[in-house]
Structures are given as structure tokens and as C-alpha cells.
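Take a careful look at the protein record below. Let me know whether the C-alpha cells fit the sequence:
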Amino acid sequence: MSQMSKPKWLWLLNLVLGIALSGIAPVATAAGYQIPASSGAGITGENVDVLQRMSKGVAQIAKQSSQAVVFVSVYKNVQSMPYGMIDPFDFFFGPGGGRGGQGGPGGGPGGPGGGPGGGGGGGRPHREKREEGVGSGFFIDVAKGYIITNNHVVQGADEIQLKLANNETYTGKVVGRDPNTDIAVVQIKKEDFNRTGLGALQLTNSDDLSVGDFVVAVGAPFGLEASLSFGVVSALSRGSLGIANIGNFIQTDAAINPGNSGGPLIDMRGKCVGMNTAIYSRSGAYNGIGFAVPASMVRTVAEQLINNGHVRRGYLGVYLQPLDDEMITSLNLPEGVHGGGLVSRLMPGGPAAKAGLETGDVIVEVNGQLIKSHSEVTTAIGLMKPGTKANLTVFRDGKKKTITVTVSQHPEDRGHGSAKDDDSEDEDEASSAGPQVFGMTIAPWSKSAQERYNLESKSGVIITQVSPDSPAERAGLRPGDLILKVDGRKVEGVDTVRKAAKGKNRLLVWIERAGEYYFVSLKS
């Protein structure tokens, strides 16, 4: 027994001593792996210093501009389904889904509800729902509480809440809004609101912008307040985007997402060059292409909204179309002319017609300002006050002229003819058995053709067929187009077109298409 007990006693003693000593003695592996401490100044050099200064400059711009940025929340009361009824759209989209509009980029208020069951509901009362949308805005005058945002952000809102950079929230009211430019001015209702830590942005001359200039976009994408993105000016004078009736948009790759609408686009001097308005995307989120309303336009429209509550737009009374290389050659324009607005139609009795403009004139300057696209003419004239005299530099038959036009007020309603959706194969009196010119079959004007293709004109020759892969098809002509002029000469009949085309490989025609008028250049 004693021989057995001794080893046990020694074993226990060794165990106790081992535990005690292990708490005192350092163990090399207890700390684990440690990353070596950094040493040195990092990458250095003249170019690196430039990048560091630029980075600090952007950070400074972000800090100062954020004082002007406002988070806009809008609320709209909409009629929902009557009590006791189930909206079938709720099953697929959730409550409120699938009804009404979804707002523009930036989460503006959706359109009116009232889907299935949105009528009388069998006499049962409708429930009132409160929809919320978000967007951005920015101060142009802190003292007066004036804030710029997009029209589509606040349109139809029953209540507007404005969260400022100092974390104060106030109720806002619409001073004025202009759907044609998607610009709105909102004002804080409370006169003695807390202005501590707030600032206003200066609207600079956006005409001085160049492609490649650095810009930052500030706003609240997806409701994430005071978010900043960095990019460049990708293009200028973007028009015909379907965003607004008057547009001359700045394109940028600075990330713009829903919720950014109404926020500022800022240059490297900390000045506002535009207002973020829309994105080009199939998914609804950022896809590398965003658009901003130029600051020069924002200033002009905002001043009218503040002073008058509405905008009085200038009116020229012309239809314009863009120029391409083929058209420039066909119109015999001189070297160096790469853009402008081609007058495709004059409104009878309009300012342009009274001043002596003619169809086929190419407007290349407005008041000395070079015109790069036809949308710039629309924008420049649209922002003029009625009664303003505009000096238009035009090319007519290859010769330069200056014509002074007195701009009138834009009519509130302007109707346009629309083409009938008529794909039938029925033939009218203008059968397809006429002569072919540049791959198009033409026939004399007829009353039945006028009615079928919704034409205004009562003379010319009608295109009845267009051959595949012909010059006419490549130029975009189609059956139903009415040729009114060819190479500047009025079309009296089929022979006029046939003789004008004889021996030529290029032809310029002026056509009507369902009440719209265009110049088309044909090349064989």
C-alpha cells in the first residue's frame, strides 16, 4: 500500500506545482500571430502629393456642400380598397403594390392609386392610405428658406418634411414648380427655423462646363442621407430624353440613385453646376449614366417661380430636327458646322414665320451662343421671356444669315397629329404600281391616302412601298410618308421627284409623317 501511495503523492504534487508555475512563466505562443507594425511614410512622390491634395479638396467640398443639402420626405394620401375587400395586387406586390405610378427617379410620390375595386366599391367607404416618397434638395437662400428640388419629387404631395443638415426637421411648402423643366422651389414654412450649421450653394454658369470635368453628386440615395459620389462630366447638351419638355442635360457617371433626385451636382470649386434629376437604367438603380439639369436653367426657372409662381416660356413657332453627317452634306453646309437645329416646319403666323425663317434653315447660333444640337435651340428660346428679341444665325442654301425674332409666349396647349396604327395590306387609290426612286415606290397624293395616314398636306407624292435594304429604308422612310419638297423644290407630282433623282446618288427630301415634318437625306 505504502509503495503504491508514494507515486500517487508525487504525481499530485507535480500536478499542483505545474499548474501554479504555468500562471507565472511566460508562454511564447500565448499571443498568437501579430501583423508587423507599419513603418515609413508610405508611397511618396510628386504625383502622389497631387492625389493627396485632390483627395483633401474633395473632402472639403463634401463637408461644406453638405451644409446645404436637404433630405426631402413627401407624403400623399391615397384612396385604398374599400373595407372588407382584398386587392388582388397585394398578393403579388404586397400592400399598395401594383397600383398607381411609381414616381420618377429619386422616389418622388407615386401616381394616383385606385386599381381594381377602386371605384364605388359597392357603396363601401375606401380606406385612406399614406404613401411616402423621398428625394433630395438644396438651399439657394438660407435666410429666406428657399430650397431647390425636382418637380417630380414634390408633385402631388399632401405634406412635405424637410430634414436639414443640422438634424432639424421642418414642414415645407411649394412656392412654385415647372413640369416642363422638372424644377420646383420649396420653402420652409417656419420663418424662425434654426439656421445654425446651414449654408447655401451658389448656382454657377454651367455653360463653362467641359466634358471630363470632375464633379460630385450629393443627396440621399435610397434614403441614405448626405451621401456623396464622385465622377466626371460624361457629355453635355443631352436632349430628347423624355425627362422634361425643355432639357439640355448634363450627363455624368457620378453615381445617382433613387433618392438623389433634386440634389446638387457640384464642381471642384464647390459651386453647383446642376441638379441631379434622372438616371438611365433598366433596373432602376445606378448604371453609370445620370443626368442633371444645368444650373443656368435652374437659376432662370427658380427666379420666375419665386417672383411669379409660374414660368412664362418663350415660343419660336418651329419644329426642329437634329443634324447628322448625311444631312450636313445634303444641305451644303460649310466645313466646321457640325451641329444645329434644322427647321423642318414653321407654324403659320408664329414668330419665326413672321421674322422670315424658312423650312430648311439651319439655326447654328442664338444670340451669339453656338448651338450644338436642336434641343439647345428649344432650351435657349424656352427660357427667354416673351417679348425678348433673339438674334438667330442660320444657314440657308449654304449661305449665312442673321434673322431677328421677337419671342412670343408659349401656348399652353399644342396639338400634334399622330400616325394611325394601320398595318393592313389594303391598297387605296395610290397603289404601289408607281415608279421607284431610291428604293421607294411613289404615287400621287389622294384623299384616301390623306385620311389613311392622317396627313395634313393636300399635295405632294405618297410613298406606298419601301424596298428592303434600299436607300429609302436605310434613311428611315416608310409607306405613308408624304414627299413635299425634293432638293428644295416643291413637289408638283411624281415627275418632279423622278426628274430630281435622275443621275444623282444623293437626294434631300422634305416629308410629312402624320402631321410631323422632317428633312431626310437619301444616299444610294
